[in-house]
Amino acid sequence: MRIAIGNDHIALELKKVIVDHLSAKGYEIIDLGTHSAERYDYPVAGEAVARAVVSGEAEKGVLICGTGVGISLAANKVKGIRACVCSDPYTARLSKQHNNTNILAFGSRVVGSELAKMILDEWLTAVFEGGRHQRRLDMISGIEERQGV
Fold first, then answer.
1. Is there a catalytic annotation at residue 133?
2. What is the pTM (predicted TM-score) of this model?
């Protein structure tokens, strides 16, 4: 599985930990974030990862900035993206089971590296349940269509 990852300058160290963690598990990484500690605008990475996911270049995406919020907001502007910010494994699992999220975001100033790996592992192993949840996702897609997003 190919996973696109993006980050800003604040999240550089945590990205390295996550890339190593995913690589050790056999995932192919497409790194679309910065590799420098110089200031980097998180919307650039958020959009790049989102576009990689919707195009099929990557099956899933991971985004990391200071809180995970800004970078996920940028990603969610791309039609077809369901990015969520998670600071705990339970929310990560349910975001996949109920919302079929295709991008996971977290904050390097919010979670440490071990918790980030736990959140990521829970999200990656969760399976979308479909059923009543699909109807709600269809409603979200309808909002996108009506907005011309």
1. no
2. 0.95
